[in-house]
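This protein record is not my work; I was only asked to verify it. Would you go through it and say whether the fold makes sense for this chain? Here is the record exactly as it was handed to me.
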Amino acid sequence: MATVTMTVNGKARTGEAEGRTLLVSFLREELKLTGTHVGCDTSQCGACVVHVNGEAVKACTMFAQEADGAEVRTIEGMANTDGSLGTIQQAFQDYHGLQCGFCTPGMVMSAAALLKDNPKPSEQEIRNYLQGNICRCTGYHNIVKAIMAASGQDVTAVAAE
């Protein structure tokens, strides 16, 4: 076991992790931040996306010890400081970009990374960016609309696919 310290959602957090402990497991089990989901265990689904030092990372592909000293942002850190939904979260609610909600944390975190790098992405750019995230419920149409809305763009022209 090793002591792992990181800044998670703006707060210093410390816990114990074996060398084989994945970041997603450390966040959920050691730090009790259960918003980051474990979906596939093979890095295919994107349910575990978090930001590490400002970059979107599938937390099932990184060891907790690799994140020692890092800045980590999880879905819990996406809300406004008053606890209300952040812009992307609110857009997902407003445009029904979720059904069961299992993929939603990873989708929101991926959307935030996309909008950081590309504040006004096209529909096709959003669809391409989300290829690493799987949703089995929505068909992605409303997720794309939500991301377009969060970027301040008109969603009426989003094509149903």
